[in-house]
Automatic annotation (TrEMBL):
Keyword Transmembrane listed: yes
Lineage: Bacteria, Pseudomonadati, Pseudomonadota, Alphaproteobacteria, Acetobacterales
PANTHER family reported in the protein's UniProt record: PHOSPHATIDATE CYTIDYLYLTRANSFERASE
Membrane-topology descriptor: Multi-pass membrane protein
Membrane-crossing segments per the record: 29-48, 54-72, 84-109, 115-133, 140-160, 180-201, 208-226, 259-282
Reactions listed under catalytic activity: a 1,2-diacyl-sn-glycero-3-phosphate + CTP + H(+) = a CDP-1,2-diacyl-sn-glycerol + diphosphate
Subcellular location: Cell membrane
Name of this protein: Phosphatidate cytidylyltransferase
GO molecular function: nucleotidyltransferase activity
């Protein structure tokens, strides 16, 4: 939910003219990177199999590497290398069908120290959730697309409405750039998107519209919590972005921070859905 560019900790507020000129400066880069990223991710999600699995494992490894860098452990360091390899092992173990083993590998990362272990748990839970939702729920591709689309709509809606309307800050001590208007706008976009996707997916059950709206809103709340959490982490580490791999977005953690909370939430809800169907039908039977 980046409705305005993150301000570096301790930076002096820019003047009014500076705000107006910088409000949309990263929009072109965001649009171009999204034009490449969205079709690639959608293709992998829809195809499933090893293509999707490889995407998730690579994303887990990349985010783990960025997390390690936040604490000063680059790829040239032993701990940085271990973080990357550890996250890949967690995802690879799950792909081999050993879900319990993947959880044990993730928990064992405590040997890396509290800060790095926290990253392994956060990234590992999100990655395992995304794998489980695609392979073990029904319809797998539709469930993941619902989740990813609602997170993306929340993020994009917050970005646009925050720039258009501005207003009171959401959490000025954590992220001075985020506004209440952006938060509300992002949630509204996720609710509308959830309604549309839930109805359009094959095999939609009764109540798909209101359930899509409700769970689209829940996904947006979870995504915004993840976004604020990552902002707090970056502020504590005194950095603006977790990386530079995605123009206009920053790093993988910057772009997918919402999924760190939203994906585990969706997986837990799916465990309560009858017969492993889409998580927005939890409690139907």
């Amino acid at each position: 939910m980046r409705d305005r560019p993150e301000a570096a900790p301790g930076a002096a507020p820019a003047g009014v003219a500076g705000k107006k000129s910088g409000n949309w400066k990263d929009l072109r880069a965001r649009v171009l990177s999204a034009a490449v990223l969205v079709p690639c991710v959608a293709l992998c999600v829809w195809a499933g199999g090893l293509l999707y699995g490889a995407l998730i494992v690579l994303a887990m490894a990349g985010m783990a590497m960025e997390w390690a860098r936040l604490f000063g452990f680059g790829l040239e360091t032993r701990r940085g290398q271990l973080c990357l390899a550890w996250a890949a092992c967690v995802g690879g173990t799950a792909l081999a069908g050993h879900w319990g083993g993947a959880l044990l590998v993730m928990v064992a990362a405590v040997v890396l120290g509290p800060a790095l272990w926290a990253g392994q748990v956060a990234i590992g839970c999100a990655g395992l959730s995304l794998l489980w939702l695609r392979y073990m729920s029904e319809p797998g591709a539709g469930v993941v697309l619902f989740l990813v689309a609602c997170v993306a709509l929340s993020d994009t809606g917050a970005y646009m409405t925050g720039r258009v309307f501005g207003g009171p800050k959401l959490a000025p001590r954590i992220s001075p750039a985020k506004t209440w208007s952006g938060s509300i706008g992002g949630m509204c976009c996720a609710v509308l998107g959830g309604m549309l996707i839930a109805v359009m997916l094959p095999g939609a059950l009764p109540g798909a519209v209101w359930r899509g709206a409700l769970f689209g809103g829940l996904v947006a709340i979870a995504a915004q919590i993840g976004d604020l959490g990552e902002s707090a982490l970056k502020r504590a580490c005194n950095v603006k972005d977790s990386g530079t791999i995605l123009p206009g977005h920053g790093g993988l953690l910057d772009r997918f921070d919402g999924l760190l909370v939203a994906a585990p939430m969706a997986a837990l809800l799916s465990l309560g859905a009858a017969g492993g169907i889409a998580f927005w039908y939890v409690g139907l039977h």
